[in-house]
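Changelog-linked ticket: adenosine-5'-diphosphate example.
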Amino acid sequence: DGVIEFKDVVFSYDNKIEALKGVNFKVHANESGALVGESGAGKSSIMRLLYRFYDIQQGTIFIDGQDISKVKQASLRKAIGIVPQEPGLFNTSIYQNILYGNNSASDEEVEAAAKAAQIYDRILSFPEGWNTVVGERGVKLSGGEKQRVALARTFLKNPKILLLDEATSALDTHTEKQLQLALKNILQGRTSLTIAHRLSTIVNSERIIVLDNGRVVENGSHVDLINEN
Ligand code: ADP
Ligand code: ADP
């Protein structure tokens, strides 16, 4: 479950520049894939197309062998979880932030998601430290903690495919380690595709897809890529 396949995908915004010029790749079930390439290579476009923010002009995108243009938007979006660069939190409790978009989840499920993302100890905190209900001022969450709240929210949704847009800013070693631990829990048993900026992500990914100017120029494990070059 969770196989992603792009077949001869051609896509342009407003029918002008071709952002993708015939893209082919496959990420197998439970595999972790990294999208690598310069700015403008087409990484974000691939993510947007998978979530069907736009329709493609040519080719086919399959998830588990099904053409996504023929799948209901709601079931597609249920199958896919997105972790954006910016965590997108509200100034409500972390508990409420994790619950956001998953309103039918039980307390136990929210707590399990918080534990998996290693943010359980802050579950009653507020992202900016302000508890508007009680009028208290606590300690605000660090950037890494906020990212783990976004991971917990996605974990709770339990999608079979995870799309991650890695933050471009460098993280300190401690934050990076905690984030990697949380990610490891969340990637377990899912297919993932990450817009990768960090070397550690690229090295740990099972499949590295290198894009250049709207085309896939390399695709394989890091060992494959090293042996080829
Ligand atoms: P990357 O994520 O690798 O930086 P993108 O997928 O964002 O690359 O961009 C691929 C191409 O599409 C670039 O030429 C970029 O300028 C263009 N592009 C990206 N987003 C838009 C948009 N919303 N409207 C028009 N062109 C866009
Ligand atoms: P970012 O890289 O900041 O996340 P995007 O992925 O949205 O930004 O866009 C990537 C590239 O596409 C940028 O070079 C941006 O200038 C270009 N782009 C984004 N939106 C548009 C648009 N509506 N029209 C033309 N180019 C765009």
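Closing comment: Example verified and attached. The longest strand covers residues 18-27. The pocket of adenosine-5'-diphosphate (ligand 1) is lined by residues 13, 17, 19, 37, 39-45 (CB under 6 Å).
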